[in-house]
């Protein structure tokens, strides 16, 4: 696999994940109490034996760059690397990345290793476990120019993905990016386990290196893989599909992020975080184990370095360094924790504050971002069922309440 280069796209503005992307890029958003989304594709690469990895970054990339630099320092004797290529203005182009394939086009000058024969393009904001060696072997056996990973999805989701039709040998005969026309959707429909489904692109593309370079150079105005380059490539290249049969979730919206995280708290989640043979790597923080006193915790994930005192927590994720006061009830929520570890009591109001969840709080169906200082007797439950709302540090999207990073919420606040 030394002839395969992995290119992970660092994501655009991430507006559908706002406010989690207000201060960070999508791949830098915390996941499952201790990871970040970018850890998923990088871990899949490393577990697949692929250790030549570029991550292309642009928007709100400081925290993402810091995490990658601190975490993925590969062995100097392995010839492997996980390096950042930040968007830059150059003599060839004064523009920032305009889209997915434009980002790769502008970075081609960095992909000069003559031993590289194939380039694997990945997204930085998806949740899945995949052995990329299977995709690589499938492409080589098919002797095709491009292989697109795909997965059957319910027909109701067709307008969210690139949808394709394939022949018996896997050759892609048509490809439509996020079709909204119902007649076209019906035309692309297929039966899967007795229900109408579509064959959706996972945004994972394996190219022959020379094929990719030629396509990008011959189509300088094309900026997106799904919308433009893949459909255009079908006219001159052999483009085939690879059907993936495992769990895969595109973290495109706040709701999908919320649901995918909480699904990990189920007794047998679709993504196994405990697989010793397929580890998910992240930054080693050397935090103390969490301390829990007089609490009832059910179907939840608790990160390291937490202090939980007399709480009732169910179906929730409690992130790193969370300090939760007594009498607090947390249900179906994500508490992202804090960047610094302190036992100091927070002072609510005009004085100094430290990240914590106060005493006698009630939190339901919410995401509490990092470093939030929540006072005592705060109630966050969206009891009125408001779908969308925004005021100060509090935002509701699709009924999910989000408290922005670094917010200070006073005693007795209710929403």
Can you give a write-up of this model?
The protein folds into two domains: 4-263, Alpha-Beta Complex (Spore Coat Polysaccharide Biosynthesis Protein SpsA, Chain A), CATH 3.90.550.10; 291-409, Hexapeptide repeat proteins (UDP N-Acetylglucosamine Acyltransferase, domain 1, 3 Solenoid), CATH 2.160.10.10. The strands form seven sheets. Strands 1, 4, 5, 6, 8, 9, 10, 11, 12 and 13 form a ten-stranded mixed sheet that branches. Strands 17-20-23-26-31-30-29 form a seven-stranded mixed sheet. The chain contains eight helices and 32 strands. It is globular, with a radius of gyration of 23 Å. The protein is α/β, with parallel strands linked by helices and 415 residues long. It has helices at residues 39-47, 62-71, 100-107, 132-142, 182-187, 209-218, 225-233, 254-263, and strands at 4-9, 30-31, 35-36, 52-57, 81-86, 118-123, 126-128, 146-154, 162-166, 172-177, 190-192, 195-208, 239-243, 248-250, 291-293, 296-298, 301-302, 307-309, 312-314, 317-318, 323-324, 329-331, 334-335, 356-357, 362-364, 366-368, 373-374, 379-380, 389-391, 394-397, 400-403, 408-409. The mean pLDDT is 91. A hairpin with a 3-residue loop joins strand 2 (30-31) and strand 3 (35-36).
